[in-house]
Design brief:
By secondary structure, this protein is mainly β. Helix content is 0%, strand content 49%. It contains no helices and ten strands. The strands form two sheets. Strands 2-10-9-4-5-6 form a six-stranded mixed beta sheet, with no helix packed on it. It has a four-stranded antiparallel beta sheet with strand order 1-3-8-7, with no helix packed on it. β4 and β5 form a beta hairpin.
């Protein structure tokens, strides 16, 4: 089973940038399509971006398209989310996981806060 540790969140002003990191353990990490999700208070968890196992294709939610970039380094067992032009509607706890379920495990996530 892949274990996941997210980091890189923090407080940033609107218009600013953050880079999130997802460190994965497990020898099968490179075989999975991976994704970033986010969950804001009182809202359901939503898919933000996903990337194929080799990084060849990426898909983004409309709300982040053109601002966020997902990437991965299979040699480092790491998935990244570069977030630019952050908006007041982006604050949430951000999680990474396999792109498709079922999901029996979630990491602790990393909190992103945007000040206006």
């Amino acid at each position: 089973q892949v274990q996941l540790v997210e980091s890189g969140g923090g407080l940033v002003q609107a218009g600013g940038s953050l880079r999130l990191f997802c460190a994965a353990s497990g020898r099968t990490f490179s075989t999975y399509a991976m994704a970033w999700f986010r969950q804001a208070p009182g809202k359901e968890r939503e898919l933000v971006a996903r990337i194929t196992w080799n990084g060849g294709r990426t898909v983004y939610a409309d709300s982040v398209k053109g601002r966020f970039t997902i990437s991965r380094d299979n040699a480092k067992n790491t998935v990244y989310l570069q977030m630019n032009s952050l908006k007041p509607e982006d604050p949430a706890v951000y999680y990474c996981n396999k792109a498709t379920g079922p999901y029996d495990y979630w990491g602790q996530g990393t909190q992103v806060t945007v000040s206006s």
